[in-house]
Amino acid sequence: NARLAIAQNDEWHALYVSNPEAFYIKVRRLIEETIGNADPRNQARLRGLQFQVDAKLAHFKDPIARMNEMVRLLWKGVDRLDAALHGEPLSTYDKSATVLPFEPHKK
Question: What is the pLDDT of residues 5-51, one digit of tens each?
Fold first, then answer.
């Protein structure tokens, strides 16, 4: 229902404007509730993904910059899904990284 969505958006916005700390507490609770309602086999992965998102967003103090980064992350995920649906391999590592050899520990 579009009216309900608009009303909820207005409520979230009003909370953010009046009490940003309470807003972020409510956001965190909603995220935890959503993860808690997921299949238990997926919860650890979801918490890991949320940790990555939080770490990336922590660099942005400006709400617009944070939103832009969230949109970028969303589209990155959509692109990965599209690649998977078209049979392209999904890389979970940076191919440009240098692998450093480790010397065996001498006793």
Answer: 888 999 999 999 999 999 999 999 999 999 999 999 999 999 999 99
- For the chain, the distance separating the N- and C-terminal CA atoms, rounded to the nearest angstrom, is 69
- Interaxial angle between packed helices 20-36 and 40-57, expressed in degrees from 0 to 180 and rounded to the nearest 10: 150
> What's the token pair of residue 26?
């409510």
Q: In terms of DSSP H, where are the helices of 1-107?
A: 2-18, 20-36, 40-57, 63-85
Residues in the chain: 107
For 75, the token pair is: 């589209």
Longest dimension (CA), the chain: 70
pTM of the predicted protein model:
0.67
pLDDT digits (tens, 9 = 90+) for 68-95: 999 999 999 898 888 888 888 766 555 6
